[in-house]
Design goal:
Structural class: mainly alpha
Order of helices and strands: HHHH
Strand content: under 5%
Number of helices: 4
Helix content: over 70%
Number of strands: 0
Number of domains: 1
Length: 149
């Protein structure tokens, strides 16, 4: 079994990679959401406002609400976690700090928020894909019926 210092080093490395990939994924999702919003807007300009476009834009709006909430949750939860760790460090005798008492998991709400955001983006992407399929495959009368969808 690896020594606890080795495990701690591995955990730090895993956390660093996790942070890197979640940061990249969050950025990519945000870029995709902006791009989808622009495409929905172009469809609206050309074909008028339809229920599909409204739902697509609604899912994107919710995506950005959860994006904002994710940062808010992170700020509040990490602030609380830091306060909890400071309290533990200040109340224990020097050299005997028990950081295991810190029970708050500040990543829990962040991960949940990201999951919501990702699912909302999937919904808007599916709607946008269906619009592309209908328009670019030339489904009969789509131009005339888009406002009824």
């Amino acid at each position: 079994m690896p020594h606890s210092d080795e495990l701690l080093d591995k955990l730090i490395d895993v956390d660093r990679h996790y942070q890197l990939y979640t940061d990249k994924l969050s950025t990519a999702c945000r870029q995709l959401a902006f791009c989808e919003g622009a495409i929905f807007w172009m469809f609206q300009q050309k074909y008028g406002l339809s229920n599909l476009i409204i739902f697509g834009l609604f899912f994107l709006a919710l995506f950005f609400v959860f994006d904002t909430l994710q940062y808010r949750y992170g700020m509040l939860d990490y602030e609380k976690h830091g306060d909890e760790l400071r309290k533990i460090l200040n109340t224990n005798e020097p050299g005997k700090q028990n950081l295991c008492k810190a029970t708050l998991n500040p990543n829990l709400r962040l991960e949940r928020s990201f999951s919501y955001k990702f699912n909302l983006l999937i919904c808007s992407s599916l709607i946008l894909s269906s619009l592309f399929i209908c328009i670019f495959l030339g489904l009969a009368g789509y131009d005339r019926t888009l406002t009824h969808l």
